[in-house]
Protein backbone atom coordinates (compact mmCIF):
# COMPACT_ATOMS: atom_id res chain seq x y z
CA UNK A 1 0.00 0.00 0.00
CA UNK A 2 1.53 3.33 -1.05
CA UNK A 3 1.37 6.61 0.92
CA UNK A 4 -1.57 8.02 -1.06
CA UNK A 5 -3.69 4.90 -0.56
CA UNK A 6 -2.75 4.77 3.11
CA UNK A 7 -3.69 8.38 3.73
CA UNK A 8 -6.97 8.04 1.81
CA UNK A 9 -7.86 4.99 3.89
CA UNK A 10 -7.11 6.80 7.14
CA UNK A 11 -9.19 9.83 6.12
CA UNK A 12 -12.11 7.57 5.20
CA UNK A 13 -11.91 5.78 8.52
CA UNK A 14 -11.46 8.96 10.54
CA UNK A 15 -14.78 10.35 9.24
CA UNK A 16 -15.99 13.95 9.35
CA UNK A 17 -15.32 14.61 13.05
CA UNK A 18 -11.57 15.24 12.51
CA UNK A 19 -10.82 13.08 15.53
CA UNK A 20 -7.29 11.68 15.37
CA UNK A 21 -7.34 7.97 14.50
CA UNK A 22 -6.27 5.49 17.15
CA UNK A 23 -3.10 3.63 16.16
CA UNK A 24 -1.28 0.52 17.33
CA UNK A 25 2.38 1.52 17.71
CA UNK A 26 5.50 -0.55 18.37
CA UNK A 27 8.94 0.56 19.52
CA UNK A 28 11.36 -2.30 18.86
CA UNK A 29 14.83 -1.99 20.37
CA UNK A 30 17.80 -4.24 20.93
CA UNK A 31 16.43 -5.79 24.13
CA UNK A 32 12.67 -5.23 24.27
CA UNK A 33 9.44 -4.62 22.39
CA UNK A 34 7.23 -1.80 23.58
CA UNK A 35 3.72 -1.54 22.19
CA UNK A 36 0.96 0.93 22.80
CA UNK A 37 -2.47 2.10 21.72
CA UNK A 38 -1.93 5.76 20.80
CA UNK A 39 -4.24 8.65 19.98
CA UNK A 40 -2.36 11.85 19.15
CA UNK A 41 0.04 12.33 22.11
CA UNK A 42 -1.84 10.05 24.51
CA UNK A 43 -0.83 6.43 25.09
CA UNK A 44 -4.10 4.76 26.04
CA UNK A 45 -2.54 1.39 26.89
CA UNK A 46 0.98 -0.03 26.83
CA UNK A 47 2.79 -3.35 27.09
CA UNK A 48 6.55 -3.94 27.32
CA UNK A 49 8.08 -7.36 26.67
CA UNK A 50 11.68 -8.57 26.25
CA UNK A 51 12.77 -9.70 22.82
CA UNK A 52 12.26 -13.45 22.41
CA UNK A 53 15.22 -15.57 23.48
CA UNK A 54 15.35 -17.07 19.98
CA UNK A 55 16.00 -14.09 17.75
CA UNK A 56 15.23 -15.64 14.36
CA UNK A 57 12.90 -13.74 12.04
CA UNK A 58 9.86 -15.94 12.70
CA UNK A 59 10.16 -15.55 16.48
CA UNK A 60 10.60 -11.79 16.28
CA UNK A 61 7.58 -11.32 14.03
CA UNK A 62 5.48 -13.70 16.13
CA UNK A 63 6.38 -11.68 19.24
CA UNK A 64 5.23 -8.46 17.53
CA UNK A 65 1.95 -10.02 16.49
CA UNK A 66 1.21 -11.57 19.87
CA UNK A 67 1.82 -8.41 21.89
CA UNK A 68 -0.19 -6.40 19.38
CA UNK A 69 -3.11 -8.80 19.55
CA UNK A 70 -3.18 -8.52 23.34
CA UNK A 71 -3.60 -4.76 23.04
CA UNK A 72 -6.20 -5.02 20.29
CA UNK A 73 -8.49 -6.92 22.63
CA UNK A 74 -8.94 -3.56 24.40
CA UNK A 75 -9.21 -1.20 21.42
CA UNK A 76 -9.79 -1.18 17.67
CA UNK A 77 -7.26 0.83 15.67
CA UNK A 78 -6.89 2.37 12.22
CA UNK A 79 -3.23 1.65 11.40
CA UNK A 80 0.06 0.29 12.73
CA UNK A 81 3.26 2.27 13.23
CA UNK A 82 6.59 0.59 13.96
CA UNK A 83 9.62 2.37 15.37
CA UNK A 84 12.69 0.17 15.00
CA UNK A 85 16.45 0.24 15.35
CA UNK A 86 18.46 0.32 12.16
CA UNK A 87 18.42 1.80 8.69
CA UNK A 88 14.90 1.51 7.31
CA UNK A 89 13.32 1.71 3.87
CA UNK A 90 9.79 2.87 4.75
CA UNK A 91 8.57 2.65 1.15
CA UNK A 92 9.39 -1.07 0.97
CA UNK A 93 8.75 -1.64 4.66
CA UNK A 94 12.09 -3.35 5.22
CA UNK A 95 15.18 -3.08 7.42
CA UNK A 96 18.22 -2.41 5.24
CA UNK A 97 20.81 -2.82 7.98
CA UNK A 98 20.89 -3.17 11.75
CA UNK A 99 23.35 -4.45 14.34
CA UNK A 100 22.89 -7.15 16.93
CA UNK A 101 19.58 -8.63 17.96
CA UNK A 102 17.38 -7.62 15.03
CA UNK A 103 19.73 -8.66 12.22
CA UNK A 104 17.50 -11.64 11.32
CA UNK A 105 14.93 -9.14 10.00
CA UNK A 106 17.25 -7.54 7.42
CA UNK A 107 15.67 -7.66 3.97
CA UNK A 108 12.36 -9.20 5.05
CA UNK A 109 9.12 -7.51 3.87
CA UNK A 110 8.29 -6.67 7.47
CA UNK A 111 5.52 -4.16 6.75
CA UNK A 112 3.77 -6.62 4.43
CA UNK A 113 4.00 -9.43 6.99
CA UNK A 114 2.58 -7.23 9.76
CA UNK A 115 -0.14 -5.99 7.40
CA UNK A 116 -1.12 -9.59 6.72
CA UNK A 117 -1.26 -10.32 10.46
CA UNK A 118 -3.45 -7.33 11.40
CA UNK A 119 -5.21 -6.42 8.15
CA UNK A 120 -4.16 -2.78 8.60
CA UNK A 121 -1.84 -0.29 6.85
CA UNK A 122 1.66 -0.34 8.38
CA UNK A 123 4.41 2.29 8.54
CA UNK A 124 8.00 1.54 9.65
CA UNK A 125 10.81 3.99 10.44
CA UNK A 126 14.02 4.33 12.46
CA UNK A 127 13.44 4.55 16.22
CA UNK A 128 15.50 7.67 16.97
CA UNK A 129 13.86 9.43 14.03
CA UNK A 130 10.45 8.50 15.45
CA UNK A 131 11.52 9.78 18.87
CA UNK A 132 12.40 13.05 17.14
CA UNK A 133 8.99 13.20 15.44
CA UNK A 134 7.26 12.74 18.80
CA UNK A 135 9.28 15.48 20.51
CA UNK A 136 9.00 17.84 17.53
CA UNK A 137 5.22 17.58 17.21
CA UNK A 138 4.12 17.08 20.82
CA UNK A 139 7.12 17.49 23.12
CA UNK A 140 10.08 19.72 23.86
CA UNK A 141 10.43 20.82 20.22
CA UNK A 142 6.89 22.14 19.68
CA UNK A 143 7.99 25.78 19.57
CA UNK A 144 11.20 25.51 17.50
CA UNK A 145 12.08 25.16 13.83
CA UNK A 146 15.28 23.14 14.10
CA UNK A 147 15.81 20.27 16.52
CA UNK A 148 18.58 17.80 17.34
CA UNK A 149 17.37 14.84 19.40
CA UNK A 150 19.59 12.23 21.07
CA UNK A 151 18.42 9.10 22.85
CA UNK A 152 20.84 7.89 25.51
CA UNK A 153 20.64 4.26 26.49
CA UNK A 154 21.90 0.95 25.13
CA UNK A 155 23.16 2.98 22.17
CA UNK A 156 23.03 6.63 21.17
CA UNK A 157 20.20 7.33 18.73
CA UNK A 158 19.94 10.57 16.84
CA UNK A 159 17.38 12.47 14.77
CA UNK A 160 17.38 15.90 13.15
CA UNK A 161 14.53 18.26 12.24
CA UNK A 162 15.13 21.27 9.99
CA UNK A 163 12.35 23.82 9.44
CA UNK A 164 9.98 21.44 11.25
CA UNK A 165 10.71 18.54 8.93
CA UNK A 166 12.48 15.44 10.25
CA UNK A 167 15.07 14.78 7.57
CA UNK A 168 15.73 11.33 6.06
CA UNK A 169 17.97 12.17 3.11
CA UNK A 170 18.25 10.19 -0.10
CA UNK A 171 19.40 6.96 1.54
CA UNK A 172 17.61 7.28 4.88
CA UNK A 173 20.82 8.02 6.78
CA UNK A 174 20.58 11.75 7.43
CA UNK A 175 20.88 12.50 11.13
CA UNK A 176 20.54 8.99 12.54
CA UNK A 177 24.28 8.23 12.73
CA UNK A 178 25.02 10.91 15.30
CA UNK A 179 25.96 8.20 17.79
CA UNK A 180 28.73 7.11 15.42
CA UNK A 181 30.74 10.28 15.15
CA UNK A 182 34.30 9.81 16.41
CA UNK A 183 34.94 11.48 19.77
CA UNK A 184 38.13 9.61 20.70
CA UNK A 185 40.49 8.57 17.90
CA UNK A 186 42.27 6.06 20.17
CA UNK A 187 39.04 4.87 21.74
CA UNK A 188 37.36 1.46 21.76
CA UNK A 189 35.97 -0.24 18.70
CA UNK A 190 32.26 0.35 18.21
CA UNK A 191 29.69 -2.23 17.13
CA UNK A 192 29.48 -0.36 13.81
CA UNK A 193 33.17 -1.12 13.13
CA UNK A 194 34.48 2.41 13.68
CA UNK A 195 36.91 3.41 16.44
CA UNK A 196 35.98 5.77 19.28
CA UNK A 197 32.33 6.44 18.42
CA UNK A 198 30.21 8.43 20.84
CA UNK A 199 28.11 5.31 21.38
CA UNK A 200 31.22 3.25 22.14
CA UNK A 201 32.14 5.72 24.91
CA UNK A 202 28.77 6.46 26.55
CA UNK A 203 26.40 3.63 25.63
CA UNK A 204 25.29 1.18 28.33
CA UNK A 205 28.04 -1.37 27.64
CA UNK A 206 30.71 1.32 27.74
CA UNK A 207 29.48 2.73 31.05
CA UNK A 208 29.30 -0.72 32.61
CA UNK A 209 32.84 -1.48 31.48
CA UNK A 210 34.13 1.84 32.83
CA UNK A 211 32.35 1.24 36.13
CA UNK A 212 33.86 -2.24 36.39
CA UNK A 213 37.34 -0.86 35.72
CA UNK A 214 36.88 1.71 38.50
CA UNK A 215 35.35 -0.87 40.87
CA UNK A 216 32.02 0.88 41.28
CA UNK A 217 29.89 -1.01 43.81
CA UNK A 218 26.20 -0.47 43.06
CA UNK A 219 23.82 -0.85 45.98
CA UNK A 220 21.69 -3.44 44.19
CA UNK A 221 24.60 -5.49 42.74
CA UNK A 222 23.49 -4.77 39.17
CA UNK A 223 25.97 -2.63 37.27
CA UNK A 224 23.39 -0.74 35.22
CA UNK A 225 23.55 2.94 34.24
CA UNK A 226 20.75 3.64 36.73
CA UNK A 227 22.75 1.99 39.52
CA UNK A 228 25.92 3.84 38.50
CA UNK A 229 24.20 7.23 38.59
CA UNK A 230 22.53 6.33 41.88
CA UNK A 231 25.90 5.43 43.38
CA UNK A 232 27.30 8.73 42.16
CA UNK A 233 24.41 10.63 43.75
CA UNK A 234 25.12 8.75 47.00
CA UNK A 235 28.70 10.04 46.98
CA UNK A 236 30.74 7.23 45.39
CA UNK A 237 33.96 8.74 44.00
CA UNK A 238 34.35 5.88 41.51
CA UNK A 239 30.78 6.28 40.25
CA UNK A 240 31.25 10.04 39.98
CA UNK A 241 34.30 9.38 37.82
CA UNK A 242 32.08 7.33 35.47
CA UNK A 243 29.53 10.16 35.38
CA UNK A 244 32.35 12.62 34.58
CA UNK A 245 33.52 10.32 31.76
CA UNK A 246 29.96 10.16 30.38
CA UNK A 247 29.49 13.93 30.71
CA UNK A 248 32.76 14.75 28.95
CA UNK A 249 32.18 12.58 25.90
CA UNK A 250 28.52 13.52 25.58
CA UNK A 251 29.60 17.19 25.64
CA UNK A 252 32.31 16.63 23.02
CA UNK A 253 29.86 14.82 20.77
CA UNK A 254 27.19 17.48 21.13
CA UNK A 255 29.56 20.26 20.08
CA UNK A 256 30.32 18.44 16.83
CA UNK A 257 26.65 17.65 16.21
CA UNK A 258 25.64 21.26 16.87
CA UNK A 259 28.31 22.44 14.44
CA UNK A 260 26.98 19.97 11.87
CA UNK A 261 23.22 20.51 12.13
CA UNK A 262 22.79 24.03 13.62
CA UNK A 263 19.77 23.22 15.85
CA UNK A 264 17.78 25.72 17.90
CA UNK A 265 17.68 23.28 20.81
CA UNK A 266 19.02 19.83 21.66
CA UNK A 267 16.63 17.34 23.28
CA UNK A 268 18.03 14.44 25.30
CA UNK A 269 15.88 11.37 25.86
CA UNK A 270 16.30 7.66 26.46
CA UNK A 271 16.88 5.69 29.63
CA UNK A 272 19.84 7.71 30.92
CA UNK A 273 18.11 11.07 30.51
CA UNK A 274 16.26 10.52 33.80
CA UNK A 275 19.59 11.37 35.52
CA UNK A 276 19.99 14.64 33.59
CA UNK A 277 20.27 16.69 36.78
CA UNK A 278 23.62 14.98 37.40
CA UNK A 279 25.18 15.92 34.06
CA UNK A 280 23.10 18.46 32.15
CA UNK A 281 24.46 21.65 33.81
CA UNK A 282 28.05 20.60 33.03
CA UNK A 283 27.11 19.63 29.47
CA UNK A 284 25.44 23.00 28.90
CA UNK A 285 28.52 24.84 30.20
CA UNK A 286 30.84 22.87 27.94
CA UNK A 287 28.64 23.42 24.90
CA UNK A 288 28.38 27.14 25.63
CA UNK A 289 32.17 27.39 25.91
CA UNK A 290 33.12 25.30 22.88
CA UNK A 291 30.52 25.81 20.15
CA UNK A 292 31.43 28.25 17.41
CA UNK A 293 28.02 29.28 16.16
CA UNK A 294 26.23 32.61 15.92
CA UNK A 295 25.29 33.82 18.41
CA UNK A 296 27.60 31.87 20.74
CA UNK A 297 25.80 30.18 23.61
CA UNK A 298 22.37 30.20 21.95
CA UNK A 299 21.72 26.43 21.83
CA UNK A 300 19.80 25.20 24.87
CA UNK A 301 19.92 21.57 25.91
CA UNK A 302 16.69 20.15 27.32
CA UNK A 303 15.30 16.80 28.38
CA UNK A 304 12.53 15.12 26.42
CA UNK A 305 8.97 15.84 27.53
CA UNK A 306 7.41 12.61 26.27
CA UNK A 307 9.94 10.35 27.96
CA UNK A 308 9.76 6.66 27.16
CA UNK A 309 6.68 7.13 24.97
CA UNK A 310 8.18 9.54 22.41
CA UNK A 311 9.00 6.94 19.75
CA UNK A 312 5.58 5.29 20.09
CA UNK A 313 3.88 8.65 19.68
CA UNK A 314 6.07 9.53 16.69
CA UNK A 315 5.44 6.20 14.98
CA UNK A 316 1.70 6.57 15.54
CA UNK A 317 1.75 10.08 14.07
CA UNK A 318 3.35 8.86 10.85
CA UNK A 319 1.09 5.82 10.64
CA UNK A 320 -1.99 8.00 10.75
CA UNK A 321 -0.64 10.15 7.89
CA UNK A 322 1.08 13.13 9.52
CA UNK A 323 3.57 14.55 7.00
CA UNK A 324 6.70 15.62 8.89
CA UNK A 325 9.38 13.52 7.15
CA UNK A 326 11.45 14.85 4.30
Automatic annotation (TrEMBL):
Top-level taxon: Bacteria
InterPro entries linked to this entry: ATPase_NBD, ROK
TM stretches of this protein: none
Pfam (any one): ROK
UniProt-listed PANTHER family: BIFUNCTIONAL UDP-N-ACETYLGLUCOSAMINE 2-EPIMERASE_N-ACETYLMANNOSAMINE KINASE (PTHR18964:SF149), ROK (REPRESSOR, ORF, KINASE) FAMILY (PTHR18964)
Family listed: Belongs to the ROK (NagC/XylR) family.
Name under which the protein is recorded: ROK family protein
Native organism taxonomy: Bacteria, Bacillati, Chloroflexota, Ktedonobacteria, Ktedonobacterales
Amino acid sequence: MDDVQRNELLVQRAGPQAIAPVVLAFDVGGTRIKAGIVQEAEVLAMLVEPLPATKDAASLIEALVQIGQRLLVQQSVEAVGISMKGIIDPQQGTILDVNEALSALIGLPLARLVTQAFGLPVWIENDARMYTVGELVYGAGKQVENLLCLTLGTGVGCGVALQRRVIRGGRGLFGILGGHITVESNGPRCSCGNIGCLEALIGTAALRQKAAELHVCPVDDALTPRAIFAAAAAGSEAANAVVAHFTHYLSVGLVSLIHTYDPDIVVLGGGIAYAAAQFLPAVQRYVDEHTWSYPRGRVRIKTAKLGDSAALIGAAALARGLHVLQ
